[in-house]
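Minutes, project check-in
Item: structure for the 193-residue chain
Input as provided by the requester:
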Amino acid sequence: MAGGDISRIKLEPRERSRRTLEERLYLRFPKLSAATSRLIFRLPPSSRLRQASLRRSIELAAAAYNRRDLDAVVITYGPDFEYLPGQKWVDAGLVEPRYVGKDGYTAYVRATEEVWGEENLFRPFVLFDLGDRLVVLAHERMRAQASGVPLTEEFAYVVEAENGRVARLREYYDHAEALAAVGISASKQLVTG
């Protein structure tokens, strides 16, 4: 992070029932996706092009996750990315502490579906861009598979990028904790969604 340069980007994802042309192209030509990501991550967080690209990428990934199109979710991820679930899920024995690559991420999603079914919707509302790290704050709406009890809770990712590709994602179930993990003060003004 150069000189404390942090961009706050408002997210307004919409549901998409199918892949966009951009997603289809990137899935068909993965080297194009990798090259584009590398170029975007070379720009400073204050760059409007970078902000627009990251906004679109996060919004498309959220829509892809909500329709369970996991290939489209991981378009900009490195081949051996690490997915680190929230500690409370690990402590409860619901998931493993670490998943690697697309196959690992798919196993994680399947494990969460055993508890929450497919009605587990990711709603990001703000992105903080710190250069090589991103923080995505969201709400997650779920319904317990066994009891049918609905639940909405805070959810966040801290994303670490290497060479323009997602290398590591860490889940948090507290916005302030996720922001603190990257050194951002969690004032009420920052985390209101």
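Outcome recorded: The longest strand covers residues 150-162.
No further action items on this chain.
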